Amino acid sequence: MTEPLGIRAESLSMTYRVPVRESGLGAAFRSLWRRQIRTVTALDAVDLQVRPGESVGLIGPNGAGKTTLMKILAGILKPTGGTARVLDQDPFQRRPEQLRRIALVRGSQPLGGAPELTVMDSLRYQGLVFDVPPARFTQNLDELVELLGIGRLLDRQVRALSLGERMRAGLAMALVYRPQVLFLDEPTIGLDVSAAVRTREFLRKYVVHTGATMILTSHYMTDVAELCPRVVLINHGTKLYDGDLTGLTDRVRHDKLVEVRLADGAALPDGLEGVEKNGRYELSVARDQVAPTIGRLLAGATVLDLSVREAPLDVLMDEIYRREPR
Ligand SMILES: Nc1ncnc2c1ncn2[C@@H]1O[C@H](COP(=O)(O)OP(=O)(O)OP(=O)(O)O)[C@@H](O)[C@H]1O
To answer: What's the CATH code, domain 255-309?
Structure first.
């Protein structure tokens, strides 16, 4: 059955036409009357369905096509092939009532508008552009000020904000009209650890509180792991995986890491192998061998400390990306 709302992309393709020019003055003159064009396929027949209220992490290496897909879904780019429907409308039609229901926030440029304005004036302007009734505006703003902790920023000029402050103000700008669909392109890029944690907490609360649908791209796997129960991996413009993160990482790693500290610098019991790091051993153990391995460690040595963990997500993603030809 057709899902009436949410997001639906069918066979979405995007080809950019890029002028090609050799370096040098002569080549610059020649290109005036003989332009060479190369085509770049950024998306190649991508299908995607996102249910209302779902949070999806769009992942893939640099140049995979993630931003292109987001821009198409947000109505900024017209695809060269296929169809997109967001909240049952073609996003590229850019109908005002549609624009009022979606938002795109780019971590690299979280705030548009006039840099001389204060954050409060920018928010008021946003409220007018998006036709938010005054009482609703005040209510939304109060919530956002509380959730994002931006009270102290309201009377500051936009141009005087730090990157983290810009991101928080940018989120407030994008969310003050309560969009139902949120496209976030690397929302924590360049943020310090605390700012990234606070941004993630905010986004989690926002989607729970409002029921918004969210598509997020990030190279920080913590963002994706914490916010998106579902991930979509694309590379070279093609969708390669759609499911939960564990299902994806299980494809490359079938082990867990057992880390152990033994008394008096003792060696590992016979038959166990591991890498020594700072007085601890790290053992890569097949998932079904974790319990027997721990049993052998406890039986064969005096264990001071022991932990079992998954391989770091970034390492797993590196392995996944490396499997794909660049
Ligand atoms: N305006 C443009 N003109 C020409 N080519 C473009 C344009 N925008 C993107 N591309 C190309 O399209 C491909 C996909 O780019 P896109 O920005 O969608 O990737 P991405 O997955 O968001 O990458 P990143 O993680 O580096 O931001 C790349 O090869 C890129 O060089």
So the answer is: 3.30.70
